[in-house]
Amino acid sequence: MSAINNDIELLAALKAGNVTAFDHFYHLYRQWLLITAMTILQDEDESQELVQEFFIDFWQHALYKRIDLSNITTLKNFLFVSIKNRCLNKISKDETRKKRLSWLQNPLYVTPDSRLENNELYAQLEGAISLLPQKQSQVFRLAYQEHKTRKEIAAVLEISEETVKKHVATALKTLRQLLEKIRF
User: What does the alpha-carbon distance between residue 28 and residue 131 come to, in Å, rounded to a whole number?
Assistant: First the structure.
């Protein structure tokens, strides 16, 4: 029997909610997906976590119901694209967090020597944030205080990712200007 026929039968059993079919699917494709993820991420732990999350989503969110083998060549192609996209999203999310961390580690940033200084700086920052327009303030807090990605912020506030990007950029520019006035 060909791989395509096996994929069609496996997919039909999954769509019927067959737990045994999911177990077979898991054992059939887990190692291959793990190797695929490790090739992209170059990190075994992250790859294992990502593949495990994929299988959980695949079953709990019934992702198998969205697969139409008449539009794709094989189930394996669908799985490869799914894992590749998840890996790229993970890399993108990590890069966003690294950029935010590098902003905090900017040489212009001076660590306060005492708790009093720290509290004073916090109060100054909070005061400056409160001067921002409401949406900018919300976006800034979600991005830098709650460490959410643009995509997550866009979903929460029901705005586009491009709007989130513009709000963050404008907020950062305004905050730098406000805080420099306070500092000198």
Answer: 56
pLDDT, tens only, 65-100: 777 766 656 778 888 989 999 998 888 888 877 777
Rounded CA separation 30/36 (Å): 10
Handedness of CA 147, 38, 87, 30 (dihedral sign): negative
pLDDT tens across 33-66, in order? 999 999 999 889 999 999 999 998 888 887 777 7
Rounded distance, CA 140 to CA 148, Å? 10
Sheet strands (E) in the chain: none
* Cα distances (Å, whole numbers) of residue 170 to 137, 176, 184: 10, 10, 22
User: Is residue 14 classed exposed, middle or buried when 0-12, 13-18 and 19+ CB atoms within 10 A define those classes?
Assistant: buried
Q: Give mean pLDDT, residues 120-137.
A: 85
